Each structure stands twice: as C-alpha cells, then as structure tokens.
Amino acid sequence: MNPIDKITEPTFTNSSKGLLTLFCIGLVHTVIGVDLTSTEIAIPWFPSINFPNPERITYLYWGLVVFAMYRYTLYHLHIIRNGYCRALMMFLNSSSLGKNFIDKNVFSDGITHQVSFEDDGESAPTIKIQHYTYDGDPEAPTQDDNGWDLAASVEFVFTDEYALEKITFSENPTYDFEEMALKKPEVRESWGLKEFIYDDHSSTFKSAKINDFKLRYGLRFNVLRNYLKILMSSKDEFDLLVPLLLNLTLLVLWLAGLLLNSF
Question: Are 118 and 162 within 8 A, CB to CB?
C-alpha cells in the first residue's frame, strides 16, 4: 500500500495510531531537521521534474495534522466529554476544594449537601448537588420512607453525548434558607439562572451558560485539574488523549518558531 492510500484511509485520521505516526514524522523533522538538497528529480530518458516551492511541503504536512486532529476529536468527542463529566463530579465531591466551592457559590457553610452522578442510560446524564432535611415524619407527602425531605437541588444536566445542556436550581417551598448563596439574586445572575414558572405555580431556575467570567473559568480550571488526574490514572483516557496532545504541542512549537522567524 502506498503512502497516499494509507493517509486517505478513514481509519488513519480517526485513530491514535495515525496521530502517533504523524507525530513521529513531525518530531523527526523538528529535532533532526530535514532539508531538500535539490529541487530537481532527474530520471534517465525522461524529462526532469522540478519542485520550485519545496518549503510548501511543510505546510501540507501541518495541514494534514490539523485535519487529523480535528477529525480525531470529533470521532472521540463523546468519550472526552464523558471524562469531563467524571472530572466535574470528582471536583464537586472532593472534601476540600469542592466543598468550599459549593459552600460559597451554591449553598452555604451551614447547609449540608451530597453529590451524585446519575448515568443509567435511561435518563439524561446528570450531576446532582442536593440538600436533604430530616423531620422524622415519613407520612409527609414530600418525604421518603425514612423522613428525609429534599429541600434544594442543583443539577448539571448533560445530553446523551455528554455536552452540558443546562444547569437547574429548585427548592422546596416548605423550607426557607435565607443564608443559601443561590437565594441571592446576584449569585443566581452569576450562574445565568432564570426563573421558569409552571402551571401548578411551582418554579425552577435554569441556565444554559455561566455568566460570570471568574466563576466559569474557576470551575473549568478545577475540572481540568481533576481531568488531568483521570488522564494519568486511566489507560483508556491516556491512550485516547496523549496522541492528540503530542501533535498539538508540536504544532504550537512550529507556529511559535514560524512567528519568531518572521520578525
């Protein structure tokens, strides 16, 4: 099989093997350096073949790398997003940073909470931050058999492809937690939460995007820290992302060198 047939195979640009092959080619060129000593190919009894712009081969190579990286990402995007969901769950469920984040931006120091991730394949994947109160009255209509009542809940709802669809906040009108962070209009505004009132007069706050820059990127930073832990501890995540990261690193180095040489 010639190189053109190999490169144009669909499995080449959506597989880690294809990306690692491209990385090795780029690494050899970057570390060792490859230059054409002649731009002419001469074959006896045939006309000479001349390449007036050999430097453009480099551009063709990096164009192929960008295409392969993009196609590889699209092909494995649902797996990458699944890891992001697990990283978000790890952060929110942590006893130090996650608890401090929830106490400051969701509930408060005096309100207990529990974090769970539901992904049973029947309903939308959801990360829930919930607060229960105990009144000891299992006969109450909103309580479970043990007398625990769901007083407030924040949910990160994802699509089947693990893309964030919405963030919701709801509370039981039986209870009033004035100290709760999400009771403050400015905190709800930072989360981008808007109130939706239903026919039965119940209401839920929903958001499709976190408005506050500091809150949004602070959350992303902490999630990425946990995603890095997953990457280094899971062979599946490691094998999936390392070829992509290696090529991205080489691409950034090449672009940086190109910009430096242009000045």
Answer: no
